[in-house]
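Researcher: Next entry: Putative signal transducing protein (Shimia isoporae).
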Amino acid sequence: MKELLRSNDPTIIAFASALLQGEGIDCFEMDVNMSVLEGSIGILPRRLMVRQDDLSAAEVVMADNNIALGRDR
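Model: Predicted structure:
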């Protein structure tokens, strides 16, 4: 799995997941339950992961929908 997107905004993660699923690209959201550790203040970003083989296609989907990939390359 490779990181596609990192964001503190759960709506962006949900939107990106829906777009990817619509294109037939499997994705997995990580760090969802970190709010228990941080006290639900939203400082720890969630990550959206995709398979290595789907990374390029997923990046195109994000670019086509003006979703910035908040991650380090």
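Model: Note for the record: The chain is about 35% helix and 20% strand.
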